[in-house]
Amino acid sequence: MSATRTIDFIGKRRLFSLISGTLVLISLILTVYPGPRYGIDFAGGTNIITRFNESVPDADVRAAVERIGLTDASVVRFGAEEDHQFLVQTRLVSTITDETRATVEGAIRAELGAEASLEYDETSGDKLFVVVPESAFGSSDTGALDSATISGAADAVAERLVTALGAAGLEGTQASLFGAPIARRFQVTVETLQGHVADGLRSEFGDRFASIDRVETVGPRVGEQLRADAVQAILFALAGILLYIAFRFDLRYAPGAVIALFHDVMITLGIFVILREEINLPILAALLTIVGYSLNDTIVNFDRIRENIDAEDGRYDLYELVNRSVNEVLSRTLLTAFTTVLAILAIYFLGGGLVRSFALAMLIGVVVGTYSSIYIANPLMIWTSEFMAAQAKRRDTTP
Question: Alpha-carbon distance 176 to 186, whole Å?
Fold first, then answer.
């Protein structure tokens, strides 16, 4: 047998288990407080990609977006610099905010009567509905308000609605009777968020502003569902891996592999919380990629351990055998990590703003995953083997 490295990885298992346990505990606390900074994918909001006809400083675009009322928006350059595109991200899904809604409701009641009611939620987008009181329509000759009376006065009431909304600061509105006349329900269409942004940027930059190229909107309820689906996806992935390792190798290998993967995901999330990086769908993809990369590294170690166990024919010291196996595949583990990190660094430094967060997550995950495949998965495999052997011995000695 050729000589191999003799680094005592397993001998330091308690020290590194303490370090890893502490880091995972801190990460768990951080995910509760202050909690992840969810992106629009998971929290709801709107992505608007804008295009300019010539180069425009980033700071000027950010200042213009703030002046048109999107104070919470982030503005980053999108695509190649010569494309003159910017991504505007805001938590708003409509020009109607909570503050605007209160103002609009007050204006409508002042114009049409205190009984007027406003129907709007985040799923309505650029539409709201107003139920108008009977007093706004007058009455028929018989004193009873009928469909004909409502229909006849609908245009006049719609004009009053538009006037009230304009007084509340909503421009470009249109109102019309919606549904059965007797319900006295009006649909009001307001200026879309992207239209508001386009008008504002055109006013700020004139002919230098070209167009709105793309708009993506995610409602808060959809974002909440996506968050639940993301957690579910990761848990299903870990459960599937547990079953695969138990079937492909042996049950004693499975817990170590899954706990190592959980360790990698949690530490990556914890670092993202500390850095206040957004958690969005690309980051979810990065986390699942990290799970796959780390699992591959762990399986390489487990495969060599299993080969050496089979070669020893039952006569071996498990600690020494695992340590030798890890040393035998160490060069492969480090070279794989090194070449992967080189590719990720190229993406990070040469890619645009949107892929940098993905590359950062991958960089953290590859480093942590390489570490865990050595210092977490292998010691846990030893512990599981000893536990299972002790249980089997107890069963054999029990009368």
Answer: 5
Cα–Cα distances (Å) from 54 to 57, 74, 177, 188, 300, in that order, read: 10, 21, 44, 37, 52
Q: Which domains does the chain have, with CATH numbers?
A: 10-39+220-397 (1.20.1640.10), 45-93+194-202 (3.30.70), 98-191 (3.90.1150)
Residues 6 or more apart whose Cβ sits within 8 Å of residue 225: none
- pLDDT tens per residue, range 149-189: 888 888 888 888 888 888 877 776 788 888 888 888 998 88
Among residues 257, 225, 265, which one has the least CA distance to residue 239? Answer: 257
- Rounded to 10 deg, the angle between the 254-275 and 220-248 helix axes is 150
Q: Strand 278-279 relative to strand 37-38: parallel, antiparallel, unpaired?
A: parallel
Neighbouring-strand partners of residue 51: 85, 211
Residue 288 CA: distances (Å) to CA of 41, 206, 292, 321, 341 = 16, 44, 6, 31, 17
